[in-house]
Design a protein that fits this description.
GO cellular component, one term: cell outer membrane
CATH superfamily of the largest domain: membrane protein fhac: a member of the omp85/tpsb transporter family
Radius of gyration: 38 Å
Oligomer: single chain
Number of strands: 35
Function: Part of the outer membrane protein assembly complex, which is involved in assembly and insertion of beta-barrel proteins into the outer membrane.
CATH topology of the largest domain: Porin
Strand content: 35-45%
Structural class: alpha+beta
Distance between the termini: 94 Å
Keywords: Cell outer membrane, Membrane, Repeat, Signal, Transmembrane, Transmembrane beta strand
Number of helices: 13
Helix content: 10-25%
CATH class of the largest domain: Mainly Beta
Subcellular location: Cell outer membrane; Membrane
Number of domains: 6
Subunit structure: Part of the Bam complex.
Strand order of the largest sheet: 20-21-22-23-24-25-26-27-28-29-30-31-32-33-34-35
Largest sheet: 16 strands, antiparallel
Shape: extended
């Protein structure tokens, strides 16, 4: 029997003319057969057919079937044929993408681009849709344009392969990078154009732009620069400041870019006053005290936003999690003054239903929960939630910590606190080497776990071997020995010191065996008391070059000119307050520490050491942080015994006064070697900022610093008692680089001693690789 067929075009035409020209008479389908498929399952085709075996097929249903099969994107041709009551679905499949390659591309990672194209729908293993090739070309060009490469050419080509597959190749000619040749600001009167351009990240080519790439145009960077410009004017009182559409033009050869920014400054406004209105669930004076703008001040958008945030946080601390505060301005254009009304809508008081923790595959829930200061069942408190986040982050167990407070469905006064974390490795096995400019080569090995079995306990075994110090130590700490957060730790250690390899320090060697216990008692969120006790045995060895006061010490304790062995029970006590926002890269807050160490009458050594440190960080901007640090130490002996010289204070080196050799600032023996003192004074001022070109990488930063300090007493080279004398302090200034590398912290400094004396040991370049216990 002759076949009847209805092509895709005929079917669609038949549907449009509403059956005025039918391809065949309706018939009852005895069977359905699919022909032409290679990869597609027959069941997929059957699922799109609007007719089953035994039903009647009309041309409307046929047209619908063809349309549905085309819509799948699997086929480039579909035909329906009829043979003796059998419906034959004849298809021609579209080719599948077997591989995607990029030719001539150097600027981007191929894997990253493939991931981006996959989001467009073009990926290996998928059906080829030629319309996506044009979109892919445009997307690739857009990526190049974002990097200032406007001369790029991208052509997509396809090559047939066996089994109805194709290879897609993007041929790229990148061309040269277009550079910004000029940036002009039109309409600036209150400020010099040069000063405004200094606010921009974008700039014309300079000696460092090959690294920063800030001479390459980017729409995102320009948008950010314009917002910085707007903030600058708004913070200086120009309330009506506006930016007209910036003009960006490129030369015909697509090599040079010119940017013109048209601005309208408007008038400068001062604040005439403010008031608080609306529903006030807290005393009005509490809110008005938080407003940073006062009558007579020049208007500042930054201070206005800061005031709104402080007021919202204050309401949040009392449970009003969804408080809304709007600052409504009232302009007096004649007087060029503005008054603000802070409209307060606190919303309903909110309570926390439950705290949910997610993402911790190894760390136990209780380790995170015990750091939470927001409690379940209590009212929402923004400051407690922020403090909870800080405490969880300070555990250093997680790459990222997020806290969200979604409303409980079906309620108006409850939220959940969802804590999500992303764990990171907390254990390490390391064998390595470091180098210190003071100690030379340091070989080290350690096995440590800061989150033992997910309990939060810390266990470490460390071995460090240097030319001066050799340490073997085993430590265990339980940070929550009690539910109140009292920590308990144990230490067993051996520490050997040999100063014969330090040219500027008097020679001696000691071997210390010790075992100790530590307690940390938190007084509140910021203050902690530290208590400790340790039993130690000191073995002191001297030689012919050891100074006379070292020999005198040995004989005072029953030894000889070659050395002595002493036993001691040492007690430690300390107090610390820490408000820093980060332990690794602090930008604000302060750290205070007072510490006392004493050798008790139970042992041979009877001495005491007192020290105090105050360190504060000031955020000058988003990238610059100022650190000020001051340290003072004082010690002595009692009971007729001197202070052990190997417990003396020392100054100079990478951790105190850079530019001077380690431990050399202070009293010296008759040979000119440093012997340390019973007093110490150190001060540091350091400005931290990102290394140019490092972007947002917080593991690498530079600093400019000035150091001051020295050690003093107890006696000078003539045997006279030595007090702290400011004329004996040493000064230095320089620059430094700190890098938290995968191999440990690296510190470099280049310092210039300012008032070095003739017998001082200077060291302009100092560095330390790795860390020593």
């Amino acid at each position: 029997m002759k076949k009847k067929h209805l092509s895709g075009i005929a079917a669609l035409t038949a549907a449009l003319i509403a059956a005025q020209a039918q391809a065949f008479e309706p018939f009852q389908v005895k069977d359905i057969r699919v022909e032409g498929i290679q990869r597609t399952e027959a069941g997929t085709v059957f699922s799109y057919l609007p007719v089953k075996v035994g039903e009647t097929l009309t041309d409307e249903k046929a047209a619908a079937a063809i349309k549905a099969l085309y819509a799948t994107g699997f086929f480039k041709d579909v035909r329906l044929e009829v043979l003796e009551g059998v419906l034959i679905v004849q298809v021609e499949e579209r080719p599948a993408v077997a591989q995607i390659d990029f030719v001539g591309m150097k600027e981007f990672s191929k894997d990253e681009l493939k991931a981006g194209l996959k989001q467009l729908g073009l990926a290996e293993g998928r059906i080829l849709d030629k319309s996506l090739l044009d979109k892919a070309e445009q997307e690739l060009k857009r990526q190049y344009y974002n990097r200032g490469m406007y001369a790029v050419e991208v052509v997509a080509r396809t090559s047939p392969l066996e089994r109805n597959r194709v290879a897609v190749s993007f041929e790229v000619s990148e061309g040269e990078i277009a550079k910004i040749r000029a940036i002009n600001i039109v309409g600036a009167k209150a400020f010099k154009e040069k000063d405004l351009l200094d606010l921009f990240a974008l700039r014309t080519p300079g000696w460092l732009t090959w690294w920063t790439k800030n001479d390459q145009y980017s729409k995102q960077k320009l948008t950010a620069d314009l917002e910085v410009l707007r903030s600058h004017y708004m913070n200086q009182g120009y309330l009506e400041f506006s930016i007209d559409s910036p003009q960006v033009s490129i030369t015909p050869d697509k090599q040079d870019i010119y940017i013109t920014v048209n601005i309208t400054e408007g008038e400068k406004y001062t604040v005439s006053g403010f008031k608080v209105a609306g529903e006030l669930p807290v005393p009005e004076k509490d809110l008005t005290a938080l407003v940073s703008l006062k009558a007579g001040d020049v208007f500042s958008r930054e201070k206005l936003n800061e005031s709104v945030k402080k007021m919202a946080d204050r309401l949040g601390n009392d449970g009003y999690a969804f408080a809304n505060i709007n600052a409504a301005p009232e302009l007096d254009k004649e007087k060029r003054q503005v008054a603000f009304t802070f409209l307060v809508d606190p919303g309903r008081k909110v309570y926390v239903r439950r705290i949910n923790i997610a993402g911790n595959t190894k760390t136990q829930d209780q380790v995170i929960r015990r750091e939470m200061r927001q409690m379940e069942g209590s009212h929402y408190a923004a400051d407690k939630i922020n403090r909870s986040r800080e405490r969880v982050e300070r555990l250093s167990y997680f790459k990222e910590t997020n806290i969200e407070t979604p409303p409980v469905p079906g309620t108006t006064d409850q939220v959940d606190v969802n804590v999500s974390v992303e764990e990171k490795a907390t254990g390490s096995v390391m064998l390595g080497a470091g180098f210190s400019s003071g100690e030379g080569l340091i070989l080290s090995g350690s096995v440590s776990q800061n989150n033992l079995f997910g309990t939060g306990n810390r266990l470490s075994l460390q071995m460090n071997s240097g030319s001066v110090n050799t340490v073997y130590a085993l430590s265990f700490t339980n940070p929550y020995f009690t539910q109140d957060g009292v920590s308990l730790g144990y230490d067993i250690y051996r520490r050997d010191t040999d100063t014969s390899n330090l040219d500027a320090v008097s020679t001696y060697s000691t071997s210390t065996l010790g075992a100790g216990v530590r307690l940390g008692v938190p007084l509140n969120e910021l203050d902690t008391i530290h208590l400790g006790a340790a039993v130690e045995q000191y073995s002191l060895d001297l030689n012919s070059t050891s100074p006379s006061n070292y020999v005198q010490f040995a004989t005072d304790f029953g030894g000889t000119a070659s050395g002595v062995t002493t036993n001691s029970l040492r007690l430690d006590a300390g107090w610390a307050r820490d408000t820093r926002d980060s332990l690794t890269w602090p930008t604000k807050g302060y750290y205070q520490r007072a510490y006392a160490e004493a050798g008790t009458p139970v042992g041979d050594l009877k001495y005491y050491k007192l020290s105090y440190q105050y360190q504060q960080f000031f955020p000058l901007s988003q990238t610059f942080t100022l650190m000020l640090n001051g340290e003072i130490g004082y010690g002595g002996g009692y009971g007729g015994k001197p202070m052990p010289f190997f417990r003396n204070f020392f100054a100079g080196g990478n951790t105190s006064v850079r530019g001077f050799d380690s431990g050399t600032l202070g009293p010296k023996d008759y040979l000119g070697n440093a012997i340390g003192g019973d007093k110490r004074l150190v001060g540091n001022a350091e400005l931290f900022f990102p290394l140019p070109g490092s972007g947002k990488d917080r593991s690498l930063r530079m600093s400019a610093f000035m150091d001051i300090g020295a050690a003093f007493g107890p006696y000078d080279t003539q045997g006279r008692y030595s007090e702290i004398s400011f004329s004996d302090l040493r000064y230095s200034a320089g620059i430094g680089v700190t890098w938290q590398s995968p191999f440990g912290p690296l510190k470099f400094s280049l310092a210039k001693p300012i008032n070095a004396k003739e017998d001082d040991k200077t060291q302009v370049f100092q560095f330390q690789m790795g860390s020593v216990f």
